[in-house]
Design brief:
With 308 residues, this protein is an alpha/beta fold. It contains eight helices and twelve strands. Strands 5, 6, 7, 8, 9, 10, 11 and 12 form an eight-stranded mixed sheet that branches. A hairpin with a 6-residue loop joins β2 and β3. α7 runs parallel beside α8. 45% of the residues are buried. The structure holds S-adenosylmethionine. The site of S-adenosylmethionine has 18 residues, from α4 and β6.
Length: 308
């Protein structure tokens, strides 16, 4: 039967905001009331027993711990750990300049700031005005002082503008269908676009989203000093994932980028519809609690013609 059964069998994941609290103290504090241990793959992520509810925990309300839920409007369920893998995959160093292209509500922005220990600069771009407010709130709660919020269209940022000449890494988490998330579990059980059975409205929506995702990725690739780009979606659809990467791979290669392998020990990789699919990372909407996709581009050499 196609109905949503709340999944109470999977562990809960939280991210420790190391700008405010160190891991050891977080383990100690949470350990007073819960069984808790560190995730074996994603740093700063803690694993709690199924059903643990921390919504009103003081460490959550004061921004020391972030629950890995994507959006308030979705189920109050915690999600898997996939959303905390994105910033880690990008791996910005303290002191870098980083651009978060589509950033509200700012969970990954806050994570970037923590990985950079608050050093360097993050430009957090967001198109939607109401969501800019949420972004600003997240940043404030996280204590991420090195973030500059930019209300505008990422596609309209001029890569040649001197303000972006030092941007070394871009996190691109564009609007997507959300088909990998719990709220959309029903969708995921229905025949998908990739199997050719989606209705015309679905196809239209996915095609429009994919067109934006491709434009945004092409735009990210055009920033002159960028060395690393992470592209992510919470979609299970090939058209928003492997197909986007496939269509931009020739441009990426011509600019000196290659696909790199985020979390090499992670077993689930891209669908084998593209050369280099083994570099791509997928999570499973059921097994991992959310369906996520991550691709990582790394530029080892900036070609002479591309040099600023
Ligand atoms: N990375 C965020 C996080 O982890 O909290 C989630 C980002 S959400 C998937 C995508 C965001 O991109 C939305 O807030 C949407 O309003 C924004 N967006 C869509 N088109 C945009 C554009 N052209 N420029 C900037 N932001 C855009």
């Amino acid at each position: 039967a196609l109905y949503h059964i709340p999944d109470v069998s999977k562990p809960r994941y939280v991210r420790v905001n190391t700008l405010k609290l160190d891991l050891k103290s977080a383990l100690h504090e949470l350990g007073k009331q819960n069984k808790v241990h560190m995730d074996d793959m994603v740093p700063d992520v803690l694993v709690l027993p199924p059903g643990t509810d921390l919504h009103n925990h003081p460490l959550v309300t004061n921004g020391s711990i972030f629950l890995q839920h994507l959006e308030d409007l979705m189920s109050p369920d915690f999600k898997g750990k996939a959303s905390s893998m994105v910033a880690v995959a990008l791996g910005p160093k303290p002191g870098w300049e980083v651009l978060d292209a589509c950033s509200a509500p700012g969970n990954k922005t806050a994570h970037l700031a923590a990985l950079m220990r608050g050093e360097g600069k993050i430009i957090a771009c967001e198109l939607n005005k109401d969501r800019v407010t949420r972004l600003a709130n997240t940043i404030k709660l996280a204590g991420a002082d090195n973030v500059k919020v930019l209300h505008g269209d990422f596609l309209n940022l001029n890569p040649e503008d001197p303000s972006y000449s030092k941007v070394r890494a871009i996190l691109l988490d564009p609007s997507c269908s959300g088909s990998g998330t719990a709220a959309d579990r029903l969708d995921h059980l229905l025949p998908s676009f990739n199997t050719g059975h989606a209705d015309a409205a679905d196809i239209h929506r996915l095609t429009k989203l994919a067109a934006f995702q491709k434009k945004a990725l092409a735009h990210a690739l055009s920033f002159p000093a960028v060395e690393k780009i992470v592209y992510s979606t919470c979609s299970i659809h090939q058209i928003e994932n492997e197909d986007v990467i496939k269509s931009l791979l020739p441009l990426a290669k011509s600019l000196g980028f290659q696909l790199a392998t985020p979390f090499p020990r992670w077993p689930r990789r891209g669908l084998p519809v593209i050369e280099g699919a083994e570099h791509l990372l997928r999570t499973d909407p059921v097994e991992d609690k959310e369906g996520f996709f991550i691709a990582l581009f790394v530029r080892t050499s900036i070609k002479p013609s591309e040099e600023p």
